[in-house]
Specification:
The structure is a single chain. The protein is α+β, with helices and mostly antiparallel strands. The chain has a single domain (about 20-155), classed as Mago nashi protein, CATH 3.30.1560. Helix content is about 25%, strand content about 30%. The protein has helices spanning about 1-20, 70-80, 130-140; strands at about 25-30, 35-45, 45-55, 60-65, 90, 110-115, 120-125. The chain has a 7-stranded mixed β-sheet, with no helix packed on it. The model has no long low-confidence stretch (mean pLDDT about 85).
């Protein structure tokens, strides 16, 4: 009887250890232009960067590559240390600081969606500088080529969270 219980416990422990962590980070950035977007998707094993150009007329597959085992560990460590639960669903500032809204003069909007072991957190910052968002971008930017890193000019915002 004891052998059966021990065998079952060992089997359950081995099964739990064999379950891989699942995570996905998606960031969509309109780059402060109407109908434009850069989308970053980091999964357990890959990095995909896509976009819309020509004011939404063209889809661009910028980068699709596998993550190295070291990069996988780094992203996993980021997810363990970054305070995901502290993100609010919405950070917003009005459009009063815009004289005119057009294709080139548009509010910056960035959406973040993080799924970590079945838990999903979504957050959006529209025309607002959010310290936690910037902290996450700073951690993830080393994975992205320089020309498509997420950069925010703090002087362009009137509201700070």
């Amino acid at each position: 009887m004891k052998k059966k219980i021990v065998s079952i416990l060992v089997f359950v422990l081995l099964a739990q250890m064999g379950v891989a962590q699942t995570w996905e980070i998606i960031i969509k950035d309109n780059i402060a232009q109407m109908n434009m977007e850069q989308a970053y998707r980091i999964t357990n094993d890959s990095l995909i960067i896509t976009g819309k150009s020509d004011y939404g007329r063209s889809n661009v597959d910028y980068l699709v590559r596998s993550l190295t085992p070291k990069e996988q560990k780094n992203v996993s460590a980021i997810l363990k240390t970054f305070p995901i639960d502290s993100l609010k669903p919405e950070y917003f500032d009005g459009y009063a600081n815009f004289q005119q809204i057009n294709d080139e003069n548009y509010p910056r909007s960035i959406e973040i969606r993080i799924e970590n072991n079945g838990k999903i957190i979504s957050s959006r910052a529209t025309n607002a500088w959010v310290r936690l968002h910037v902290q996450l971008y700073d951690m993830l930017n080393p994975f992205f080529p320089k020309e498509v890193q997420i950069l925010l000019d703090k002087s362009k915002f009137n509201v700070f969270y």
